[in-house]
Protein 1
Amino acid sequence: MPYFDFHVHPTLKCMFSEADAKTSPWIDIDVKKIPWLLRWCTEFEYILGSQADLNMLNKNKADLIVAAIFVPERGMTENDLILKESQTKLQVYLNPERLKKMNDGTLKPYPDLVNEDLDVLLNAKRFGITDREVVVLAKDVVFDENDASKIFVVFSVEGLHSLSPTLDKTKISKQTILDNLDELRAKYPIILINITHLEQYPFINQAYGIQFVSNDDFKPTGNRYSQDGIDIVKHCYENNIIVDLKHQSLATRRMLIEDIRKRDEFKNILQPLVCTHAGFTGLSYNDIPDYIGYQKVRRKNYSYILWGKPRLYSMHDLTMAFNPSSINLYDEDILAILNSGGMIGLNMDKRILGYSEAENRTPTADELTFEEEYISNDEKDVYLTKRYLGKKMTDSYCITTLEVLQGGDVNPQLGFYHLCHFMQHILHFIRIAGQTADVNKALTQICIGSDFDGIINPVWCCASVNDLDSFKNQFIKYFPDFAKQNKDKVSLPNGFDINRFADDLFFNNGKNFVMGRLKILYNK
């Protein structure tokens, strides 16, 4: 059985090398080029090493992917750590002259970087590859899952800043972006877009989504949708392009779900809701104030939130938690996606899936582990919905550091613990799907959206596409027992077949969704 990925970056790590010495997307990153201090004292080896380059995708039968068209924001490329490492052995992948051209505007996001990135993806002969290729699922192209020489691709755009000729927030233009989107979709199947990514742009507000780079540019300060943002949604819907909920702030996506999509002008053009590379919070909107500590940041337009991490499910003596940060989906978000006929892709980043390292190796029994987040002051109303905050930030409701340590710190124990975090997402999805009219239909609306090679820190049970076979087999082996041990919280639907569901989760669901969208795009 082949594999599908709803969100992957097979060429992002090639973007920072010069054109005349371009890193091949068909060759694995040499992790020995990562300075030894970063390798041994951090997890950068897992983050920067190859997770889904084209050779890996091809040999592991990842036959159908949604490739993200993406240009990194300035807050990333101007970061001191990035610039420093470009002076080390890493410069073969992280060229300092290249970064300079990206930062000073010599190389424009669109068309320069986007078009070059597409050539890197699609021009295998440029890198001496003649027996394999990436094939765009254009109108008359037939998808053949048995053709071992081909990776079939459709596209998303992750952050509309990627379609701007400038990253200057005061000069970025809605009309220019829409014109460039139309130009791009005339050539390639663009099935969905993320309006925002990690930085603040004028169209919509973003969720806080990066921790290893400290920069105020990444902290949300906006307020929901601007009129330009609404116009962008309308333009996309009119052209059968889906707007991804991923990276939208909580208040922003609630405005889309609860307001914009219900307006008369949208009634006849609605597209499904999706979240392509998601994690779940394990909470409903109403639960939010019970799990937070809130602090306004002096002289800033953002505030700080400290989250207790809710634990709902367990496996033997292991307890897992969710990451309740608002970049992840709340129960109402999941339901809205399902009821719209949309799709959810599960992310392979371990923090998104709820795992976090235990900072204290000798904790007290009731010491909690936390997640940190920043929210815009203009959107605090969707968090501060009760008079008292943090009522459930106790070890009765939230995971403790001691419980995290019981998950282990080396493989195979820690890999299994990460697998349990993934399985709790599937079980929680089934629990929420039980609120729909058709649970079995909902089981066709979830897939893998790994975010591999998108600068993520992957779970150890599936650190790259090389692990897909073993990951799927472990899921088949352990999920029935996981569900059985949590039967007091949720029951599997009658007739549930783990082998059939695994095939659907890892391939069929995503394939069928994409093929359905292509029929709409091409009016077949």
Protein 2
Amino acid sequence: MRVLAVLLFVLFTGCTVVVQPTTRSYAPPPPPPPVQQVYYEPAPAPVVSVYAEPAIGQPEPVMVRWAPPPMLVMEPPPQPYPDSVWIGGYWSWHGEWVWVYGRWVDPPRPRYRWVQPYYENRSGMVVFVDGHWAPPHVEFVPPPPGISITISEARIGVSIGVAPKGPAGIFVPPPPGSRHGIIIPAPLGTSPAVVTGAPPVINTGMYIDRRMNNVGNTTINNTTVVNNITNVTIVAPANATANGRAFSHSVSAQAHLAAAQAPVVRVDAPKPATNAVIPAFMPGRSQVNLPPPQSVKPVLPPEYQQRLNDRRREQDQQKLQDQLHREQDAQRKLQEQQRHDQEQQQKIQEQQRREQEAQRKLQEQKHRDQEQQQKIQDQQRREQDTQRKLQEQQQKIQDQQRKLQDQQRLDQDQQKKLLEQQRLDQEQKRKLLEQQRKQQEQQRLDKIRIDQEQKRKLQEQLRKQKEQQGTGQPVKDKEQDLKKKEQEQKQKEQDARKKEEEHKKAEPETRDGR
């Protein structure tokens, strides 16, 4: 009942209920056990082998973006004469890493000595100084940190190799057959050929021990230069070598003796395709033409070959098991997905049925709403008719009010006209009064003038009588009477002036009152 009440409330309020399907969380299977790392011989990469003419004096260093390849095997022939020096047998940079084929040569000048090539891992790049002849009493100076070194880019068409993998500092290339990019830390002046007889490495960890037999050391720029080295020790942990065994072996530090070691993996250095000798690489100088590359093939010892075959079989079996696990897992996932799809389909059908029922109830509600709307519209129409009648009645009342206002305006106009007529009548009366006043004033002035004229004539008669009769009392009485009359006349004139002034003051008050 509670669910039904909620559903009816939702339907009547015009809302739509959306049921979110419940999702079942899928737990992925545990990952397969890690496959033990298997050694594979490096893919045979073509090698450019050349004869090189070493520089006399320390050449300028260059910066290379990737590490030199693993060492190649080259057994030196017997020394032809006592003063000859074994040079070459290492990787040099000429727009790509090329193999400098080893040979016995005489020093260019007396007491000149051979300096091994210099490799350093600096900021993930290789600082390289080619092998060269050094004058007597001149020691090799490693490029100091912070110096600006030219980055030498690869030749056009040369594939970029692997960046150096290992600790920063001086190193030599890894033993023959090793994984590309791995570097072997070594003391300064170590011949790269010392790793010829070491096992190939697949991880970092191999290094050349500094504990060695030597005659004398020289320190230059905080770097110890070891002279007259007789033996060095190569050390590697088990996880670094391809055979999974720890390695520690002392070998001769002399290049021709170290190169004569029996290799674990034989990758013979090809003889140069041409007898032309190329000069040492110099930054900024135009690149020399190199001979075509030659293919090389690593030869594994039976132990490595058997171990490799066993590892390959194990790996193939592991791959088959992994494939079977993946297929089973995929089948289980498919079944789980199908079951989930069926449950989802059932929920969708139930949802559709609920939606149809809700739609039907919604249509019924809409029908009731339409009827209610129709009633409301009829009520509104009746109200509109009533409103229209009220408006017509209000219009009539407004017309009557307008007529009444018009009548009042006419009455006001008529009253204004009457007031205007009264004002005109008062103005006419005022003018008549003014005219009467002027007439009275004129009469008064005429009377005064006549009295003055009579007085003057009387005075003239009195004067004549006086002259005829002499001085007497009657004449004085007449003069007094005459003065009295004059005073009375002046009093009348003053009274007339006061009345006139009062009349003038009364006129503005009368106008303001109108």
Protein 3
Amino acid sequence: MYRRLPAIVAAALLAASLAVAQPLPAGAAGPTMPAGFTDQLVTNVAKPTALAFTPDGRVLITTITGQLWVVTPGAGLLATPALDVGPQSCAIHERGMLGAAVDPGFATNHFVFLFYTVKNGSVCGQNVDPSPYNRVSRFTLPDTNVIDPASEVVILDHIPSRNGHNAGDVHFGADGLLYVSTGDGACRLDPSEDTLCTVDNNNSRSDSQLLGKILRVAPDGSIPTGNPNVAATGSRRCGDPAAAAVVTGPGPCLETFASGLRNPFRFAVRPGTSQLYINDVGEQSWDEIDLGAAGADYGWNLREGHCAVGSLTDCGPPPAGLTNPIFDYTRSSGCSSITGAAFVPTGLWPAPFDGAYLFADYVCGKIFRLAPLDSGGFAMADFVTGLGASSATSLAFGPSADGQSLYYTTFAGGGEVRRITSAGTPPDTTTTTTTATTPTTTQTTPTTTTPVSPVGPSNGPARAGYWMVGTDGTVYPFGDAKSYGNAPTTSAVDLEPTPSGNGYWIVDDQGRVFAFGDAVARGNADRAKLSPGEKVTSLSATPAGDGYWVFTTKGRVLTFGAAPSFGDVSNVALAAPVLDSIPTATGRGYYMVAGDGGIFAFGDANFYGSMGGKKLNAPVQSLVPDGDGTGYWLVASDGGIFAFQAEFRGSMGAAKLNKPITGMVRAGHGYLMVGEDGGIFDFSATPDGFKGSLGAKPPAHPITSVAVLAN
């Protein structure tokens, strides 16, 4: 059996009656959420699938049975739907009206976009001919809230629907383009192979099909020039509205933005950007969240989550050309169908929810927060529980009497639209907010510390601090960071903390590694393997601390302990030396950055852009991934910051520095820079960022690195 959203028994549409938003009666069982949040009923609608909001405050609700309902600020749920395509649609096998998006120019054009299934004959079964298909159309929604069916303009057509796995989400990005998710169709598209289903279904792997993809088109249906297949040989329109039937042929589809997905029923766009987080329902082992990227292949039906399909143990870096998810979870907790997706708008809710990504699971009835870990990567943290099965099919932030609230649809209770509102600060205040700050350059004398015996992993209160290291191997700790010893060298280049924060490694430019506290020395670079003039630039530890990588100016990667190799550029003629390197949060890949801003990404490291080929005022010194692992910053020696899919927090580009910037580290939702004189420039957006500097008393030897304490 292939896993999907559980089949819904056909039933007559419930009479939709106005329900003023109200909390559950006292004593009634309901969802559990953090203190300061309330859950209210907005209205009852049978089988609601998706939500969208007009600028004037109307709530649009799509349903399995093919209706578009409207809730107005004054009258509530209107008695009749704005549009009903039910007689021409199919409401079984995961079909129906599945998605809605409001045109960015709605205030003047009144356009709405709907994803729905076309019956294409008299039968809505599986593997029938002619078979139903999915369509994305534009309609005009007037102030009367009655759509004229004749206003339909088909944007994408003939997306096959012979079985299930239709996906069906639609959203606009800040680029003004329309993004659409499609499922893999459950079974192979070719009628002669339609018994090959589940892991044997390879529709997602075919670039000549629209199935198992994220599609991207302009609002008029035309193809954006930046789509990956625009320049491909034989590329063609596969969802051409002018075609009479499903377009077949060998050429790659022009509409494709990303591929290798199973059933991405819901995805979300980070506000103010075109960055997608894609929720892909798995087969039997993993549900996953993928970072949308042009041309990315997420691996289905070869991969499921970060593992080989069907496996919980055959995991690690993906094969060449494939992209691992940024997060996945197994079915062991009883959650097994990832659905709703939404980003909390920045500034709307207090920490730790401000700007967070929320996702839901249809089977276990929960809404989770994707929580960044101090050590990198993510965990899933409960936000709302007790929603019941068949719930939270979609999430979306929209207007309410409280400003903005999180709306969600659920099939539970006969079908409801509900909303969650924040009325106060949640009890968890350990996660910092994402408000940008002016750089802090206050300089203080560092706290004097003495070496202490190494201790086990921290299980006490949250700690905040950082270390600096000078070229002479002297370590300067600040905040809760402690000194475990200095390295006997005259050319230290990097300090790397252990995962517990109770030790560190120091490496010098000759490749000698010195271990302190609970750090374990696993070997030094072999100078015989390095070419003349080649020097070591940095050391990075695996997430478990059971190995480390040593990187060189020539782009060579040396591995020690359990650290695997994902490749290097030692055989490439570099225009500038590699000056910094850092692994991904998973430890299944790493980045290298050259002085000219060129970026080299290996394993599951995603490439978001570089400064390669551009004229720089000063060389790039460091690369730092953002807190979500979905972008990165580069810092130049003059304090200039280059942000790629990461929020710009400020720079020192226009300021005159006493000494050049030599390093940068992520802190909070931003970063700290360190100067050669030990000055710290704080763009961390958290009160736990700045813990002191050496600026008032510069060290005898230049500072070469800064490392933050991971609690």
